Amino acid sequence: MQQPHHSRVDVELGERSYPVHVGPGVRHLLPGIVASLGAHRAAVVTARPPDLVPDPGVPALIVRARDGERHKTLATVEDLCRKFTTFGITRHDVVVSCGGGSTTDTVGLAAALHHRGVPVVHLPTTLLAQVDASVGGKTAVNLPEGKNLVGAYWQPKAVLCDTTYLQTLPAEEWVNGYGEIARCHFIGAGDLRGLAVHDQVTASLRLKASVVAADERDTGLRHILNYGHTLGHALETATGFGLRHGLGVAIGTVFAGRLAEALGRIGADRAREHTEVVRHYGLPDSLPGNTDITELVALMRHDKKATSGLTFVLDGPSGVELVSGIPEDVVLRTLAAMPRGTA
Prior knowledge:
Domain 3-dehydroquinate synthase C-terminal: 196-306
CATH architecture of the largest domain: 3-Layer(aba) Sandwich
Number of strands: 13
Distance between the termini: 45 Å
Radius of gyration: 20 Å
Domain 3-dehydroquinate synthase N-terminal: 64-174
Number of helices: 11
Organism: Streptomyces lavendulae
Pfam families: DHQ_synthase, DHQS_C
Number of domains: 2
Mean pLDDT: 94
Keywords: Amino-acid biosynthesis, Aromatic amino acid biosynthesis, Lyase, NAD
Low-confidence stretches: none
CATH topology of the largest domain: Rossmann fold
């Protein structure tokens, strides 16, 4: 029987389907999940104190992770895989991640590569990781040239979004997570403003699960999940990952509205709605003051979606879609017209 205030969202991918549990205390489902996998050992990679991770019920290696985009590197993945090897982790075992989105991304990639694929279970501990990063099977690390440029698709066996983890988050981590929730407003989740956090997380996950089930490997529909991300990722890279992901996505969401208006895809009211939603969540709607817009355009050309010139996910008369071949001068003009701040 489902416990009060617990939700379950299923990511339907045939034999690779898996549940996402949301609610207080759901991390304690971990030993049962590990047992159902028949794992002999577990490697637990955690950015939170080890006592916040339940005993997986099998002999376990505890590895301290360093959360943050600067640690999302191939060197970190190699270090993890070597530790897995020393402990004897094989395909018959399980890897568990516990931390924010950078931890689930990096540990997920290590699990995907070790022995060509070891089962992984995610325990996301930040709002951003719970509403987005831990679900969908995208794993990746960064290069100096850009974010998430080296990765693999590797679906978890389960995701446990324990909302009690959120109680200790600093204010900046809440705002960071709201960046992903704000962009959901424009891609089909509806207006989530005013809902309880549990309901915002669950609604965001239901949307993502339905999109991933329809387009696991980003060949079409899944592009909508990258709303606001093209500029957001460029800003993260340009600032040496000093600008947090959710804040970059929020600025990118405002820009997406302005660019869609500049291209005649939406009207002024819909473009203003982007700013209103972003501001509601306490997110920035302006470019960092020292931003070089020509550098941003160069970085956006490296975006994984940019196979046919500058490419953005944009709102329009038929809804949100991937738009390629956007003229550089329009992008530059729209960037130049963005307000400047200190974010």
